[in-house]
Write a sequence for this structure.
């Protein structure tokens, strides 16, 4: 465990973020030699072992390596094997927003506005069909604006797939959120926005911008090396991020990773 108990813990909502599971059409799928179903299960087991009370979960995209309804159904099955808390999800560049929206499954995810105590979690779709980079369509920005205006008294966290600021690795920062200026333009008008969190970069990251906490979260599969000019696989383990969302609008967060496992990953790969 990498965090300390806070005095207001009993009133905080604990949100768990998992991201970039890259599941294949069947459970044999390998990504750079790693079975992505196995590493997702390892991370889910880690969460179940470490977290006694999960109030909600969010998955920030690249659920599938290639869009296939079976991958999405399997993802939901796996999460539900361990958790009954509400789950939100949103598409990444490897996903099909359409397949996700039309999936038939007994345990479908929550709508893209989730209420968590005094907080709300807004899920945005930054995927652009056929592209690796991200962009928020006009309708997404309008949705965000609407939600922030309607819930001006609610502390807000925004989740999306793509990084809205560079994380320091040239190759992946080519594929960030292209209209981040418009995105921050909306956020800057609404002081109840406390945090933004994303996936895509397969690494842990934290920065602050105008009092808003900005986070990236490790993938549940292979990790990318931070501060690398070219594509490089990191040897750190898959993991997840936790958030404690306090009623007063403050929050705490940390990352935890699988330990005691050896994965057969091709660490020399030049791309994925
Ligand atoms: Fe990814």
């Amino acid at each position: 465990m990498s965090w300390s108990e806070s005095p207001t813990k009993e009133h905080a909502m604990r949100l768990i973020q998992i991201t970039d599971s890259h599941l294949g059409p069947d459970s044999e799928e390998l990504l750079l030699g790693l079975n992505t179903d196995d590493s997702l299960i390892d991370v889910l087991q880690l969460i179940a072992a470490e977290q006694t009370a999960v109030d909600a979960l969010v998955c920030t995209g690249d659920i599938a390596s290639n869009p296939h309804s079976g991958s999405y159904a399997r993802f939901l099955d796996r999460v539900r094997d361990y958790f009954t808390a509400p789950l939100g999800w949103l598409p990444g560049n490897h996903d099909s927003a359409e397949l996700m929206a039309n999936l038939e499954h007994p345990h479908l995810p929550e709508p893209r506005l989730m209420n968590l105590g005094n907080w709300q979690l807004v899920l945005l779709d930054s995927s652009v069909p056929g592209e690796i980079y991200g962009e928020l369509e006009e309708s997404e920005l309008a949705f965000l604006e609407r939600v922030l205006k309607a819930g001006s008294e609610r502390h807000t966290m925004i989740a999306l797939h793509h990084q809205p600021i560079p994380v320091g690795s040239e190759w992946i920062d080519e594929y960030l959120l292209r209209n981040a200026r418009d995105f921050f333009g909306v956020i800057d008008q609404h002081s109840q926005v406390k945090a933004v969190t994303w996936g895509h970069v397969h690494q842990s990251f934290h920065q602050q911008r105008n009092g808003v906490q900005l986070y990236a979260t490790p993938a549940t599969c292979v990790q990318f090396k931070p501060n690398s000019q070219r594509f490089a696989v990191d040897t750190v383990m898959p993991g997840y991020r936790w958030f404690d969302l306090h009623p007063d609008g403050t929050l705490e967060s940390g990352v935890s990773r699988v330990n005691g496992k050896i994965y057969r990953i091709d660490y020399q790969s030049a791309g994925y």
Remarks:
- Residues 36-50 form the longest helix (15 residues).
- The two ends are 31 Å apart (CA to CA).
- The first strand starts at residue 13 and ends at 18.
